[in-house]
Amino acid sequence: MDNYYHTPEFRKTLQEFEGYIAKGACGYLDAEELTDLAEYYMSLGEKEKAQRAIALALKTFPGAALPTCFKARMVLLLDNDAKKAEEILEEVADKSDLEYAYTKAEIMIANQKAKAADRYLSQRMKDYMGDEEDFIIDCASLFADYDEYELAEKWLNRSTLTDDDDYKDIQARILMYNGKFDESQKIFNELIDRDPFSNVYWNRLASSQYMQNNISDSITSSEYALAINPNDAEAILNKANGLFALGDLEEAEKYYNSFLEKQPDNGAVLQEIAFLKSRLGKTDEAIDFLYKAEKAGIGKEMAMVTRGYIYLEAKQFEHAETCFHKALRISHYAPRVIFNIGIATYDTGYLHISKKLFSLLFEKTKDIDEWNEGYAYYARCCYVMHEDDEYAEALKIAVEKNPDEARFVLGDLYPKGTDPKDYPMLTPVGSEE
Question: Which of 234, 228, 271 shows the shortest CA–CA distance to 255?
Fold first, then answer.
């Protein structure tokens, strides 16, 4: 779609619509053109113009699938209101339209019903025989967009278009999710060779490099994306995260602020700025940003944990303890909250406390088969505290339970590129901090 935005055809449509906004007069634009415009404006963070384009489309073409589905998705993604999105979706006149099927499935996925969405799409697939390859790829992409990678892989395995760009893109994303960063980057680079002006591929390469802790390479990839489109919000955020990771806090702050100009209500980024302000020693400003993040929807429990983290970083121990206890109390000692407090105490160097919290976490989650987080952090605490025998035992569990977490937390203790499953056979060579 990014490439389409640069075509003479789209630029003409854009000029015509901008004329409508300026003069109140507009030539004939069909539902698809107006929806393309709305998507373009949303990519720039210009929500009001996007809404105006969709309003015009629905006024002129009531019940048309494309603009109605777009409006439903806006409500779903911006307002997090699945019920209202579903009500809007039912206004589509032709329920056999592909966009209706995709959007209905997307609402299910966003509503934590991914398996139901999978069943629904499998049932609908018979309606699109002849176009089933496109349908398969679109379904795989939809599940990948919501981090439902097992279902994305299930759909992708149905496709025979293994050399198709979209197939390779989803394949690389699945590899990245599974911690196979070198393989994912090889594919993203191949896709970039085919289309060097694709922001999407550069951004995904940057994400894979960041997750592999190749921060400098990630920043470079982000800069390529920004050279193509200086207003690319994802590239701006990727570069901000990279700069923050490298400790270039002032420069990172500039990019976070640039991102907020486009998405001022992004709770996760407001929270990240709170962390950044805390690192700069600006505790009061950090707390102010955290209030904004909570208002933007990061959740009361998460906000309380982060507030405790910030106070702990400022060595305001009593305030931190109060926040952590309150977060535990209101969450009824939820494992996720215990884990986050464990991370907060780990990051700020209170490893004895962190180790106790992770022990509590493992006791709480011993009957939850799918829980696999915190084990590498517990092992790292043992390592730094010179509890060698306990570290050896904890390491075995960490690499078995969650090799990705083990690589992230313990990877610097072993030769670069070592597979986590081999860590227990090697002597740690990293710093004892």
Answer: 234
Do residues 383 and 360 make contact, with C-beta atoms less than 8 angstroms apart?
no
Q: What is the pLDDT along the chain (433 residues), one digit of tens a residue?
A: 566 676 777 777 777 777 666 554 455 778 898 898 888 888 777 888 888 889 988 988 999 999 999 999 999 988 888 999 999 999 999 999 999 999 999 999 999 999 999 999 999 998 887 788 999 999 999 999 999 999 999 999 999 999 999 999 999 999 999 888 999 999 999 999 999 999 999 999 999 999 888 999 999 999 999 999 898 999 999 999 999 999 999 999 999 999 999 888 899 999 999 999 999 999 999 999 999 999 988 889 999 999 999 999 999 999 999 999 999 999 999 999 999 999 999 999 999 999 999 999 999 999 998 899 999 999 999 999 999 999 999 999 999 999 989 988 999 999 988 999 999 999 998 655 5
Which one-letter amino acid corresponds to residue 373?
E
Amino acid at 298: I
Residues 409/380, Cβ–Cβ less than 8 Å? yes
**Would you state the structure tokens that stand for residue 265, as one six-digit string?**
């209500």
Nearest to 176 by CA among 139, 218, 136, 134: 218
Rounded to whole angstroms, the maximal C-alpha distance in the chain is: 77
Task: Please name the helix (run of DSSP H) or strand (run of DSSP E) that holds residue 346, with its range, or none.
Answer: helix 335-347
